[in-house]
Design brief:
single chain, 493 residues, alpha/beta, Rossmann fold, Pdz3 Domain, 8-stranded mixed sheet
Length: 493
């Protein structure tokens, strides 16, 4: 067993798990089953600082919405995350690279960067192999039926890289479809109208309900949307509605009537390693919510439902990709075959946690007879060599560290849903502004900043518009009573 400098074996193992929990708390999209994970990440951050050194203030994908992005490797630091970012966002989004058991400990001398900024690296059993032939890599990927491009949702450079990859693949194979995790299936008609040039940016974002379905700054994704529009490449909505995610998380897959499953089939069984990892995350969350709670079991319904929810999400996106690849069309019915009659290349844009190590969407694709989906990831150029584990992806692109990063918009730290009386709080992140303010799950916010509140998007906009040091008064209903709370946004230092 190789030991890391300054850490006992048990400490190193603990640090590994904590970082994995953090990565899971970020990704993969807005499944209520995963909103619980960000609170685990917050608690884990304290322990990490004791074992692995200080980190900058954490950034959240959008803590006003369910945090389901789970993107993490089991290695002590998640490859795709910048060192200056909170571990809670070390990717990506997360729940998925889940199949590698945590290497117990690492040699200090091996914890060094081996990636070259701006260059591709392949990974084999010997570790990272920098300097991959980009031309050969693109040609190989362009021959696949499906290629998945990972991301950390809030990283602008990841999205710039995705645009470059789309352009390179499109040059090799003009017949192309682009699937997006960001959109539920019901948004497909709007995507079709956007690509057809019938909608302005503002109309497009309004009609897809961007602030409600994703809530990341639209500016991060607009270059991708414009690429599709300029090149008349169909966009495909991959995700499911939050209603289905919540139903599965609450009662499990079998409890949801077939008519309410949005046509999604039963997911392929996950690998044992994937289940093992999910169980550790589930157990950590249970203990953080109630430190006095007895140990949880793999037989607990809550854990089974947790796994079902993630699998449903992965399966839905995989099925949408396969359907697009087989038909050569989006739901508009317009074919996008190349001049040679080949079916289009289908490219999936999604959190890296759905891509890593062949878990998540990649695993479900293989169960649907997509033998070799291409797996490409952007990672921090400062990622240590110890994190470049065989099977991570076909190749990774080393993204240079940004010289300056803009401060993230304020986050309240809640998951929200519409309610007849206002906006209901579904989940409160531990240690968040909402928690410090005394907000609770089940509260219904009826007024914000002195005005009535009917939509979650309105509250999101109000919170993001707050400047450091200001206050936001709220009026809410709790257990039949009307109470007032004031959110105090801290001064940045």
């Amino acid at each position: 067993m190789i030991r890391s400098a300054g850490l006992s074996e048990s400490e190193a193992m603990g640090a590994c798990l904590l970082r994995a929990v953090e990565g899971l708390a970020f990704h993969l999209r807005k499944s209520d089953a995963f909103s619980l994970l960000f609170s685990a990440a917050n608690a884990a951050r304290v322990g990490e600082r004791k074992t692995a050194g200080p980190h900058n203030k954490p950034r959240s994908r959008n803590s006003l919405q369910p945090t389901s992005s789970m993107h993490s490797s089991c290695s002590p630091k998640v490859p795709s995350m910048r060192r200056s970012r909170s571990p809670a966002f070390r990717l990506l989004p997360a729940i998925l690279a889940l199949a590698m058991p945590c290497p117990a400990v690492f040699a200090a001398e091996a914890d060094t960067a081996c990636l070259e900024p701006g260059r591709w690296t392949t990974i084999d059993v010997k570790g990272a192999q920098p300097g991959a032939d980009i031309a050969a890599l693109i040609r190989t990927m362009a021959q696949r039926d499906v290629v998945l491009l990972g991301e950390q949702h809030d990283q602008a450079d990841h999205h710039r890289w995705q645009v470059q990859m789309l352009a390179a693949l499109h040059a090799q194979r003009p017949g192309m479809l682009i699937g997006f995790e960001m959109f539920p299936r019901r948004a497909q008609p709007v995507l079709d109208r956007w690509v057809a040039g019938e909608l302005s940016e503002r109309e497009f974002l309004k009609q897809v309900e961007w602030d409600r379905i994703w809530s990341m700054p639209a500016e991060l994704y607009l270059p991708l949307f414009h690429f599709a529009r300029l090149n008349r490449v169909p966009m495909v909505a991959l995700n499911i509605d939050q209603t289905l995610s919540r139903a599965v998380a609450k009662g499990g897959w079998d409890a949801v009537p077939e008519a309410e499953r949005e046509g999604v089939g039963r997911a392929a069984a996950p690998s044992p390693a994937y289940v093992d990892f999910l169980f550790e995350i589930h157990r950590e969350h249970a203990h953080m919510r109630d430190p006095k709670a007895k140990d949880v079991s793999r037989e607990d319904a809550a854990f089974r439902n947790f796994v079902d929810s993630q699998l449903t999400w992965d399966r839905a996106m995989a099925e949408a990709l396969v359907s697009a690849a087989g038909s050569g069309t989006a739901t508009s019915g317009k074919t996008n075959y190349a001049d040679d009659g080949r079916a289009p290349l289908v490219v999936g844009i999604m959190g890296s946690g759905h891509v890593r190590f062949g878990h998540g969407v990649a695993h479900q694709l293989k169960a649907l007879a997509v033998a070799e989906p291409g797996l490409l990831l952007p990672v921090d150029a400062a990622t240590p060599c110890t994190e470049m584990v065989a099977g991570l992806a076909d190749a990774v692109f080393a993204v240079p560290e940004a010289a300056h990063s803009p401060a993230p918009p304020p986050r309240l730290g809640v998951s929200l849903e519409e309610h007849r009386d206002g906006v209901k709080i579904v989940e409160v992140t531990a240690g968040s502004l909402a928690a410090h303010t005394g907000l609770r799950a089940g509260d219904v916010i009826v007024e914000a900043a002195g005005g009535p509140l009917k939509r979650s998007a309105t509250l999101i906009a109000l919170v993001q518009a707050q400047t450091p040091g200001t206050w936001l008064p709220l009026k809410l209903k709790r257990d039949g009573e009307t109470i007032e709370r004031v959110v105090r946004f801290p001064v940045r230092r």
